[in-house]
Design brief:
Length: 232
């Protein structure tokens, strides 16, 4: 068996055992997760662990998200194909690649320039060179490319940043882990004429969203979701 065949088998198992067997039901999300070569988004020494049910270290104290959390965020955004999506916290670029399988236009922003540069290279190598990778404070969004049908935030925030809510189209959805630095709950905030409508999803634990409308200071944590022992 070639390494590619081995990774493809691991990817199919990941979809069946970590996603479908839990509660991911959106077939487009499941198909996207089965297409993106996650091994290209982890450091070379960690490739054999790429399909584990966990977040993995990618350097600079940051992580590639657990596959389940990537799928869960994508599913909560209820994407159909022609949307423009902003992905805040590029990290490895993996979530951006999954989003690029789901929609036509993906913009992503990362505060650490080295990670953004590596993600840009990984995305190009995996065939997702059309993803627009920016460097900056993602709590402020990327106003010049908005408004967005959906915004995914893969870092924990004390609350949904106003700037991100303002860059949603009417009816647009923002998925974001909200809580303190230790534990959060994934929330979906829908922009409506009556104001934000909030739906609550699974408990989770992400690295902090640092910036003007996020947490002050620095910190890192390798755990993210059900693998950390939270109820599920
Ligand atoms: N979803 C990513 C993936 O699949 O690789 C992983 C995201 S990682 C859990 C969170 C990322 O958010 C880190 O790379 C971190 O540097 C970034 N981040 C934290 N605060 C940010 C901010 N204000 N703007 C942009 N990126 C930020």
């Amino acid at each position: 068996m070639s390494p590619e065949e081995g990774f493809a088998g691991a990817r199919r198992s990941m979809v069946e055992l970590q996603l479908r067997a839990r509660d991911i039901v959106d077939e487009r999300v499941l198909a996207a997760m089965e297409r993106v070569p996650r091994e290209l988004f982890v450091p070379e020494r960690a490739r054999d662990h790429a399909y584990e049910d966990a977040a993995l270290a990618i350097g600079s104290g940051q992580t590639i998200s657990q596959p389940y959390m990537v799928a869960r965020i994508c599913e909560l955004l209820a994407l159909t194909g022609r949307e423009r999506v902003l992905d805040v916290g590029t990290g490895s670029g993996y979530q951006s690649a999954v989003l690029a399988e789901l929609v036509s236009d993906v913009v992503t922003i990362e505060r650490i320039p080295e990670l953004a540069e590596r993600a840009r290279r990984s995305l190009a190598a995996a065939g997702y060179g059309r993803v627009d990778v920016r460097v900056g404070d993602g709590t402020l969004g990327v106003r010049e490319r908005g408004p967005y049908d959906a915004i995914a935030v893969a870092a924990a925030a004390p609350g949904a940043p106003d700037s991100l809510y303002e860059q949603l189209k009417r009816g647009g959805r923002l998925a974001i882990p909200v809580g303190d630095r230790q534990s959060q709950r994934l929330e979906v905030i829908v922009r409506s004429p009556e104001g934000p409508a909030v739906l609550r999803s699974v408990p989770c634990r992400f690295v902090p969203l640092l910036g003007e409308e996020g947490f002050p200071g620095a910190g890192a944590d390798l755990s993210e979701g059900p693998e950390a022992g939270e109820a599920f």
